[in-house]
Amino acid sequence: MDGAPGAVPTLAQALGPTLVPMVVTAVLAALLTTVLVLGTAALVLLKGGRRLMRRWTTRPAGETAMHLPLSLESTPWQDVLFAELRAETGDVPVRPMGSRRPALTLDLVDLVAAQLAEKPVPMDAHVDLSVELCPHVPRPLRMSLPVYISGMGYGVALSREAKLALALGSALAGSAVCSGEGAFLPEEPVLAHRWIYQVGRGAWTHTPDAVRRADMIEIHVGQGAEVAAPLTKPPGRLGEGVRKAMGLRDDEPAVIRSRLHWQGRTVELAELVRILRDLNPDVPVGVKLAASDVLEADLAVAVEAGVDFIAIDGEEAGTGNAPLGLSDAMGVSLLPALARADDWLRAQGVRARVALLASGGLRQPADFLKVMALGADAVGIGTVALIALAHRQFEAILPDPPSRLVSHGSELARGFNAVQGAHNLANFLESCRKGLQLLLRAVGRRSVKELTRADLSCRDRDLAESLGIRWNLAPADPHRLAVRHLRWAAVRTGEHLDALELRFGLLRSAGGARR
Questions:
Q1: How far apart are alpha carbons 136 and 267 in whole angstroms?
Q2: Cα-flanking dihedrals φ and ψ of residue 265, to 5°?
Q3: Strand 261-262 relative to strand 254-256, pairing
Q4: Which of 17, 33, 224, 265 sits 20 to 30 Å CA-CA off 79?
Q5: What angle do CA 265, 269, 273 make, to 5 degrees?
Q6: With the C-alpha atoms ordered 299, 342, 464, 502, is the resulting torsion angle positive or negative?
């Protein structure tokens, strides 16, 4: 019993009177040591900092450590990197995922909100996102979503698993997928809901069987990041299965010519359109063009050739490996190119017959609606679809870039789960569907077909004038809402806008045109 005579005291009882002072002394000693160490380090750093400051401010910058950060302000690190690559290899460097050149951003364009003067669409009202491209052909391309997966080719860009995942994911969302300028994958049209076959400038894309299986045929003339330049992919970068699908020998490179041809014979666009229509007469046949400053002249050739649609690819577009110079020094931004194409086709009286598709740097639902209001009938996505495809899976390959998970020839692509990737893409497109419906309700439109440029405004005055939309830093003119309603009525009734404006006495002057 505690305190009993003859009991032996425990260790705690024996140390009790001195334990607290011992702990306090140890803590104070540790704190004092920490303060001394930190103080010494601060003095050393301060002394070293003073020495560095004296050195930097008394010697030429080119002889100090400030030389590098100052040099990188006048010569960006990207230019240093590409200069090093040129010096190392003697080859043209390539830039992944498109141009770095500043482009006219969609952030300068706003959707016009409906509130009181014009009412937003109630939550319980149906909002129609479906599109029918080229209704004049026997089999128009119909999608429940106005967003499709643009061309990214098997072998020249993506792995087989990535291509099949894109096809399946787009099918789950009721959208379409484009084959791209790579080798033909027979499984792709089977998995796809709507399959767009791209006939390119590479001979391996001239496959009559693939043409017959297509829901739409796209003739690849050029694209935003590469325009129509001739390109070569070395045989060492093509797997055995890809070379076989392309019909190439083991030592033969994959050559993408600069001119259109069909099965070894150079052809003009009009002849190629006729050849493809003979093979598959029921589906739309169109052309993909890089946006350029001679766009109207290119459009004239395409319309004369009898195409059903024209896909405009802005300079913002990405690609797996764009040769430096092509991606940075050529092309036009999507916004002005799309507005110009829509204006020119309307001026020629062929807009109802020729569909317009748009792609290049489009990432989210607001982007999609803005370009559709500018004139696009549907929009294509590429880079953002690959990001969605690799969701969660790329964490396992960090610090390698996510693109290696879906790229052809990458050893990391073997770990890609195509089913999971398709599910991720379907989720992304479903999120876009909900976002599009939400935005349309806020704009006061029940269908993407009702969108016009009157549903847009712009923060930049020159860009607003170029696009034919209102500059929103100035008060709206009294007829603004009436003109907006007339634009909507013109879309719904098919009556020419100028005729409606004349009837209601609202035809604007040239100085305020399309504001």
A1: 26
A2: -120, 130
A3: unpaired
A4: 224
A5: 95
A6: positive
Q: How far apart are CA 321 and CA 409, in angstroms?
A: 13
> What CATH superfamily is the domain 121-443?
Aldolase class I (3.20.20.70)
- Exposure on the CB side of residue 472, measured as CA atoms within 13 A: 13
DSSP 205: G
Integer Cα distance of 241 and 478 in angstroms: 65
Bridge partner residues of 218 (DSSP): 198, 286
Round to whole Å and give the CA distance between 37 and 302.
76
Name the pTM for this structure: 0.79
Question: Where do the domains of the chain lie?
Answer: 22-61, 121-443, 461-512
- The 10 Å Cβ neighbour count of residue 266 is 10
**Amino acid identity at 299:** L
Query: What's the pLDDT score for residue 506?
Result: 42
Cross-strand partners of 287: 219, 310
Amino acid letter for position 224: G
**What pLDDT digit, counting tens, does each position of 150-163 carry?**
999 998 889 999 99
Q: Which DSSP letter does residue 293 get?
A: T
How is residue 390 written in tokens? 């690799």
How far separated are the first and last CA of the chain, in Å rounded? 99
**Pick the residue with more confidence: 476 or 421?**
421
- Six token digits for residue 407: 């790229």
Q: Note the residue count of the chain.
A: 515
Distance CA 68, CA 62 (A): 8
What does 356-401 look like in DSSP terms, one character per residue? EEEESS--SHHHHHHHHHHT-SEEEE-HHHHHHHTTTTGGGGTTS-
What is the residue type of 314? G
Distance, in Å, from the CA atom of 262 to the CA atom of 204, rounded to the nearest integer, reads 10
Tell me, what's the pLDDT at 324? Answer: 66
